[in-house]
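Hello,

I think I submitted the pyridoxal-5'-phosphate job twice by accident. Can you confirm which output corresponds to this input? Input:
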Amino acid sequence: MEFTENLSTSRKSAQERASVLANPGFGDFFTDHTAVVDWTSNEGGRDGQWHDARIEPYGPIAMDPAASVLHYGQEIFEGLKAYRHEDGSVWSFRPRANAARLNKSAQRLALPQLDEDVFVDSLKKLVATDVEWVPTGEGEALYLRPFMIATEAFLGVRAAREVSYRVIASPAGNYFGGELKPVAIWVSKDYARAGRGGTGSAKCGGNYAASLIAQLEAEEHGCKQVLFLDSFNDNAVEELGGMNVFFVTKDQKLITPALTGTILEGVTRSSVIQLAKDRGMEVEERKITLDEWRDGIGSGEITEAFACGTAAVITPIGVLKNGDELIGNESAPAGEVTMSIREELLGIQLGTVEDRHGWLERLA
Ligand SMILES: *Cc1c(COP(=O)(O)O)cnc(C)c1O
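Support: Only one job matched these inputs. Its output is below.
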């Protein structure tokens, strides 16, 4: 599929761009262009055609007010980064895993499948067009946000017959701002992120919409993120609003909640599992409850906990606030295993550590 180009006549000046890149933050600024591919179904069925692949100027999307994404939330997204290497080249990390996950999410949300090569091409075209926006600073990257929305104007409830796939890009620094420090996490008691048979393992906006009230609660309690549990059963640990969770035991084992259908399978999660196995560490994907977490910290069986995802990479968890109860230590330093896996993963992404698994794909 060929992408046509309609380039912006009002690109940001070098000066404006430099001032954004001097302090990119996370998700506040966007590059000059966007990649788009539209889809229309054949005779109202599940099959259809992707068409009109194009690069166009970044800007508002003209959409009918009856577009079904605005009413029924038929939407999915992805998140990955473009990393600048020392020689100036730009690389993505396991983009085909994101393509596969987009299609898994699409399947669950009754959206069409997108060819993996079209997905990777859309990233390449956008990044090549806006390559000057890829930051060079330490810990910085160009965050890529592919997404798919139902654009058909129709208020009856059914899978939309017109869909748009788009990619936007945003220069990004540290997700939590400032220096890397262990974060405080709020345990949500009243709200679940996902349920059995629901959309927990799909990357869809609706999951995030359902998590925001708990996120507000977390912020009111001085926490950066929410931990969701299977709180209507046995308090099995699931994940944070947008990150998977890992534990390190005193005998150097890694534990992470098993994928049960209510947890999102992170690309970072599966990379961490692989890197740990490469080191000869034992990795357990299994149920771990809040009680086991609390007891494990108390007895010294669990020595470290961390959260991981593309945006925040690997972030040590300092303390867990469960109502008035504190689990862990607010001022404990980041764990050694946590930091060592973080360094290795970042090294691979930045091209300074050997890419043994062929995870990198060049974008520009
Ligand atoms: C995106 C996401 C993650 C992390 O996935 P990565 O591929 O590692 O970025 C974890 N949990 C949820 C709910 C997510 O949406």
